[in-house]
Design goal:
This protein has 261 residues and is α/β, with parallel strands linked by helices. The chain has 9 helices and 7 strands.
Length: 261
């Protein structure tokens, strides 16, 4: 029996990177999967490649109607919801004194408010149907490690870690577990800009005792553990998976980007 047989999972940010690989692994483990993303064409193609046990829905997690529609798509296609991986996110980079307010707000809106809206509507469905469930949020190494130029992103991801705790505290009485994953640098389209800066990926590797950056597979396998009954006693936790990078320091981004030199 596969780890997620008979379960229905929602994955946001499912068109590429971590979300796509998690959706694939959930499906391989026996779950029916709904992939959600602003990239409606990309997520539809991803669902087609996974097969008949997958469906796609386009939408923006910062729009409450869209967040509700993502949950409704799980019920409409597969009759219920058991697992959600709230993974959609964006980045941004600027010194605090130069950070555009709209850009700052957009990072918080997607990375933090979007997670809140997803949890809100996922929890409503899980409570209504009974039987508990597992909610997984994507935080970041930057939930605990401050980084130059990432004031919005670090703040949003730290917020996700605390939101995870509060949600776990409130929803545990309904047998709903809520945990977060804190990736370090992962090879995804979202991080391509960082990895294209000469020497920066090498700097990340040098700060990680394990000696490499991560792949979507690494994060997806941890998400599978959190989605499954193997983690049935775990809730309210942010699990950092960064090759040990949090032991050392984050590369000095201002130096690599030529800021304030």
């Amino acid at each position: 029996m596969a780890a997620l047989d008979g379960k229905v999972a929602l994955v946001t940010g499912g068109a590429s990177g971590i979300g796509l690989r998690a959706a694939q692994i959930f499906a391989e483990a026996g779950a029916s999967v709904v992939l959600a993303d602003r990239n409606a064409d990309g997520v539809a193609e991803a669902a087609r490649e996974i097969g008949p046990g997958a469906a796609a829905v386009g939408g923006d997690v910062t729009n409450e109607d869209d967040a509700a529609a993502m949950v409704n798509a799980c019920v409409q296609h597969f009759g219920r919801l058991d697992i959600a991986f709230n993974n959609a996110g964006i980045g941004g980079f600027a010194p605090i004194q130069d950070y555009d307010l709209d850009a700052f707000r957009r990072v918080l809106d997607v990375c933090l408010t979007g997670v809140f809206l997803c949890i809100k509507h996922e929890a409503k469905q899980l409570i209504a149907q009974g039987g508990g469930g597992s909610l997984i949020n994507t935080a970041s190494l930057n939930a605990m490690q401050a980084t130059e130029g990432l004031s919005a992103y670090c703040s949003a991801k730290a917020g996700v870690a605390m939101l995870t705790k509060v949600a776990a505290l409130e929803l545990g009485r309904h047998d709903i577990r809520v945990n977060a994953i804190g990736p370090g640098l992962i090879s995804t389209p979202l991080t391509q800009g960082l990895r294209d800066v000469p020497g920066l990926e090498e700097a990340f590797v040098n700060e990680a005792p394990i000696g490499r950056i991560g792949e979507p597979e690494d994060i997806a396998q941890l998400a599978l553990y959190l989605a499954s009954d193997a983690s049935s006693l775990m809730t309210g936790q942010t699990l950092f998976i960064d090759g040990g990078a949090n032991i050392n320091r984050y590369p000095p981004l201002f130096e690599f980007f030529g800021v304030g030199q």
